[in-house]
């Protein structure tokens, strides 16, 4: 979920028909804004969980608002802890390409010129291979099909490409796609956020991920963005170590739970 979508001072609730159609049950999303008052948000959250009609509510709140876990548990819904999202940031100027290393390894970054079928297939190949066994918040819920969760990542990436091909950065190895990052510019125009990023399994562990991040840095500077943001589940330590080596630092944490309507 983008950092911009988590901002605000209130508790918001909205339907998520794409997810509902994918998983075959009614789904809504609830977000407690980063600047909400914790005690007020706790009261609003319980009331919302008790009155909302969706079978599943995907609820997110700032992790430092520790009282909201007990508030959710006091509702009439079953609460499934799903994940904690860690948000990291880096000045765009830190993500500089190493042209010598790229040439030595036969690598280059590329931005698609259009959403043609070949580009979509390349995007889907990398996303499917990279996220196949990833433990996201959907996989915490036994009511949701794990394969359909992967389809959600594929759909998310494809919609980024269709919206604007420049929102996709590919890492190519000898003209074969081995990495992908999908992007969005923040509301204030200063942040470029990475929504999805990954490498195919065959090339992981070789230090190539840094080159993908550097390609994102190029896009950030081209768009006049001063900061790059990225997020992942707290358990994904390997990629967070890579971010730290690239100069990122953590700045936010968001808790996710699934609130299921009881039979």
Secondary structure: elements and pairs:
Layout: E1 11-15, H1 17-23, E2 27-32, H2 38-51, E3 56-62, H3 67-73, E4 78-91, H4 99-105, E5 107-110, H5 117-131, H6 146-163, E6 168-173, E7 176-185, E8 191-199, H7 209-222, E9 227-233, H8 237-245, E10 249-260
Parallel strand pairs: 2-3, 8-9
Antiparallel strand pairs: 1-2, 3-10, 4-9, 4-10, 5-6, 6-7, 7-8
Helix pairs in contact: 2-3, 5-6
- By CATH, the architecture of the largest domain is named 3-Layer(aba) Sandwich
Low-confidence stretches: none
User: How many distinct beta strands?
Assistant: 10
Portion in helices: 25-40%
Note the overall shape. globular
Specify the biggest β-sheet. 10 strands, mixed
Biggest sheet strand order reads: 1-2-3-10-4-9-8-7-6-5
Q: If you average the pLDDT, what whole number results? A: 95
Instruction: Report, as a whole number of angstroms, the end-to-end distance.
Output: 29 Å
The number of helices is: 8
What structural class do helix, strand and pairing data support? alpha+beta
Protein name: Acetyltransferase
Keywords: Transferase
Organism: Intrasporangium oryzae NRRL B-24470
GO molecular function, one term: acyltransferase activity, transferring groups other than amino-acyl groups
């Amino acid at each position: 979920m983008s950092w911009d979508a988590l901002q605000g001072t209130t508790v918001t609730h909205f339907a998520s028909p794409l997810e509902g159609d994918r998983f075959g049950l009614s789904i809504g999303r609830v977000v407690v804004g980063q600047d909400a008052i914790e005690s007020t948000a706790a009261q609003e959250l319980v009331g919302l969980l008790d009155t909302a009609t969706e079978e599943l509510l995907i609820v997110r709140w700032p992790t430092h608002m520790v009282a909201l876990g007990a508030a959710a548990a006091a509702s009439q819904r079953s609460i499934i802890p799903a994940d904690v999202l860690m948000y990291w940031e880096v000045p765009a100027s830190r993500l500089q390409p190493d042209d010598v290393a790229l040439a030595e390894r036969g690598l280059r970054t590329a931005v698609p010129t259009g959403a043609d079928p070949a580009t979509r297939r390349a995007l889907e190949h990398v996303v499917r291979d990279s996220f196949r066994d990833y433990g996201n918040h959907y996989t915490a819920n036994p009511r949701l099909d794990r394969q359909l969760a992967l389809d959600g990542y594929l759909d998310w990436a494809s919609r980024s490409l269709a919206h604007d091909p420049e929102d996709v950065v590919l890492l190519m190895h000898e003209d074969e796609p081995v990495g992908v990052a999908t992007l969005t510019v923040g509301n204030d125009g200063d942040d470029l956020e990475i929504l999805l990023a990954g490498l195919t399994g065959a090339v992981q562990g070789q230090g190539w991920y840094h080159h993908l991040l550097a390609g994102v840095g190029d896009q950030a500077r081209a768009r006049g963005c001063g900061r790059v943001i990225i997020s992942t589940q707290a358990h994904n330590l390997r990629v967070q170590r890579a971010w730290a080596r690239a100069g990122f630092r953590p700045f936010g944490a968001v808790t996710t739970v699934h609130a299921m309507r009881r039979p």
